[in-house]
């Protein structure tokens, strides 16, 4: 019930905004942009109604699937009698094939692991990962250190020139 009220309110708001944009278009300061918005807002209202109808349709299909699964499991066999009794979840399994079943396309194959070639491969780890730190700094570190020393010298010169 709350969803119906929300959809009606959203559609009415969209139509009211469309009407307002139409009035703005017809005024002396109206532009083509106002006309475009005046034509868009009713489409948004129609989409609200369409979305609600689609939601209800998918709920009905889901209920049919749950009913079909419960009637298949109650054939009177020993497997059904030995199954643990408890509350049945309101939503059926949400595995990879669920969307396909809801849309009537049959069951999609279940993905059990990520394919190896899906992600880019890393380079092999260096042999001395757990070994001691290298004695000589990397060339990038040396250049960075030299650049920082140069900047410190420039700062020292500029502060001496200002009498600080």
TrEMBL record:
It comes from Tomitella cavernea. Residues 124-133 have a biased composition (Low complexity). Keywords: Membrane, Transmembrane, Transmembrane helix. This is Transcriptional regulator. The lineage of its organism: Bacteria, Bacillati, Actinomycetota, Actinomycetes, Mycobacteriales. It comes from the Bacteria. Residues 67-98, 113-143 are annotated as: Disordered. The chain crosses the membrane at residues 34-52.
């Amino acid at each position: 019930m709350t969803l119906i009220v929300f959809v009606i309110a959203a559609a009415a708001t969209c139509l009211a905004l469309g009407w307002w944009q139409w009035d703005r278009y017809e005024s002396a300061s109206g532009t083509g942009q106002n006309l475009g918005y005046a034509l868009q807002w009713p489409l948004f209202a129609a989409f609200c109604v369409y979305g609600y109808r689609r939601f209800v349709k998918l709920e009905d299909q889901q209920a049919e699937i749950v009913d079909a699964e419960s009637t298949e499991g109650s054939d009177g066999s020993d497997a059904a009698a030995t199954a643990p009794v408890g509350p049945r979840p309101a939503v059926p399994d949400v595995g990879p094939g669920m969307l396909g079943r809801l849309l009537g396309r049959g069951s999609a194959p279940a993905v059990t692991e990520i394919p190896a070639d899906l992600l880019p491969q890393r380079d092999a780890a260096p042999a001395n990962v757990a070994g001691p730190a290298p004695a000589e700094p990397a060339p990038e570190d040396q250049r960075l250190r030299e650049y920082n020393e140069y900047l410190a010298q420039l700062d020292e010169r500029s502060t001496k020139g200002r009498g600080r």
